[in-house]
């Protein structure tokens, strides 16, 4: 049987993160009101990566269908160099 | 497949995935799901039941750092705030075996210019803690939740980097170091900052088959 120590994860938490550790200039995430996962992913990338805003900010998510949003998300990830995560096999 | 690995799921978005734990009672792998942690699950499947024990204890629940946490309140405060993500592992019997809450808008302990995901809370259900109960049920819950945060960090363009603050005990330090975490700064109260840098995070993702 595997050792518990190989998988020991202590409880983490209860420590307030110093304000200096929170990035400034991250806006639009506090109460977004979005409903779909695609919208969440797009808004998060836009907020976290200022260089994306220059290229993508004027897109109107409300006017897009899911396929268009998926394409937009893939374009953003491509621009950031984020490789698709694979699905590990059995 | 490795015990505790994730299978048949898309992990670069928020779709709940299948997680393979190890069922210690039956000495067999067990599939669970990674699910968004809702207020309902937090209230009914964590706060109301986690600290009720059927079997003998070998540790003191009141000494556990999360004994007084109210997950329902944690989730309620963060549920519509996209700076935060709260996830849980749910087994087929609908019970929650562990939970994590992290924020995505934070800076590295090592370099303030580098963004990271900060793990604010992480806990396996007390029934799964081998230092607390005589016969823990599942193994792999905590590390799978931590890996979920690494996956999300990578998918958000943060390189997989994850930071957290935890106890500096030898066992804790050994766990994080085995996964490539660096110790950063000690706190006056004995807590320690840990950080998983991009390279180590992606090595972990490769090892698990994601990259």
Count every helix of chain B, treating DSSP H or I runs of 4 or more residues as helices.
5
Helical fraction of chain B = 10-25%
CATH homologous superfamily of chain B, by name?
Answer: Gcn5-related N-acetyltransferase (GNAT)
Encode the helix/strand succession of chain B as letters: EEEHHEEEEHEHEEH
Instruction: Write down the Rg of chain A.
Output: 18 Å
Sheet with the most strands, sense and barrel status of chain B? 10 strands, mixed
Q: How many distinct domains of chain B?
A: 1
The dominant shape of chain B is globular
> How many runs of DSSP E, i.e. beta strands of chain B?
10
Q: Distance between the terminal alpha carbons of chain A, to the nearest Å?
A: 20 Å
The unreliable regions of chain A are none
Principal-axes geometry of chain A comes out as extended
Low-confidence stretches of chain B are 1-12
- Helical/strand content category of chain B: alpha+beta
Structural class of chain A: mainly alpha
Measured distance between first and last alpha carbons of chain B: 16 Å
Under CATH, the topology of chain B is which?
Aminopeptidase
Helical element count of chain A? 3
Radius of gyration of chain B: 16 Å
